[in-house]
Specification:
2% strand, 272 residues, mainly alpha, two-stranded parallel ribbon, single chain, globular
């Protein structure tokens, strides 16, 4: 009886395939590989994730200035009457006693005081980097919101902010809105007239002017932080390309600029 011994084929490695099984789908990768692939996708998505309650710095400041403008518009008429009554009660001979708002932008000063009083709370709520961006946005938008073509409102804003920061550093017993009123009155030149100096020394008069700042401060940034987060959208490549194209255009224009032709004048004869 003849017995034919046949050699068993060697087992295939995991990466090998026979000709017959060449058309079969490959085995799925290991679970660890799948896990890292999914993790990488999630990380990529997370980098571009924006929370639903995210608000850009510019939009937050725009809304802030608009809301404060509404508060000041409602309370300003009575506040102006207090100033005019004070000037009249002291029998002022100053012709500004009736129409001081015709000589000074009193409403803009009042608005700057409210904005500064609220913005002074920002450093206690946000990190320094956020504070710098917010103050920069306020400076850019403040005069436009006040419908001014100069820097009167923003200059007064930063002056009041500086005084409030100094007040906090000194741990003074004075209240912030009292300091705001004093800065505004000095900007109205109350310290340059006899009647104005008497009113500056009148504690009751200053308290009446400080009343709306104390009662109607909207506590805007505290409420905003409870409901929203600040967000700065990244600069896209398109924005970078536009800026680069603009820079190239400026360089080309400057390079092709021709020197103006000068008209030489004959030197005048000397008198001596």
């Amino acid at each position: 009886m003849n017995v034919t011994l046949t050699k068993k084929p060697a087992p295939l490695n995991p990466g090998q395939s026979t000709a017959a099984g060449a058309g079969k789908p490959k085995k799925p990768p290991f679970k660890v590989v799948i896990f890292f692939q999914q993790l990488w996708k999630r990380l990529l998505n997370w980098r571009g994730y924006v929370p639903p309650n995210a608000v850009t710095y510019e939009l937050a400041v725009k809304q802030f200035l608009g809301n404060v403008m509404g508060v000041t518009a409602r309370t300003y008429p009575n506040w102006l009457k207090v100033i005019e009554s004070g000037l009249t009660d002291y029998n002022s001979t100053d012709n500004r006693k009736v129409d001081i708002d015709a000589y000074y932008p009193v409403d803009d000063f009042y608005y700057a005081g409210f904005v500064a009083l609220e913005a002074a709370k920002i450093p206690g709520l946000y990190e320094s980097a956020d504070v710098d961006i917010l103050f920069s946005c306020i400076a850019d938008q403040l005069d436009k919101v006040a419908n001014r073509n100069d820097r009167i409102v923003s200059d007064l804003f930063f002056e009041i902010i500086a005084r409030l920061n100094l007040l906090q550093a000194e741990a003074s017993q004075k209240l912030p809105y009292d300091k705001v009123v004093k800065v505004i009155l000095k900007r109205l030149d109350f310290d340059k007239t006899e009647t104005g100096r008497m009113l500056l020394a009148d504690k009751g008069f200053r308290q009446m002017l400080a009343e709306p700042f104390a009662l109607y401060a909207p506590q805007w940034w505290e409420k905003f932080k409870l409901n929203f987060v600040l967000y700065q959208p990244p600069v896209t490549q398109a924005d970078d390309k536009e800026q680069e194209d603009l820079a190239n255009l400026i360089r080309t224009t400057e390079a092709n600029r021709k020197e103006p032709k000068r008209r030489w004048r004959k030197r005048a004869e000397s008198m001596f």
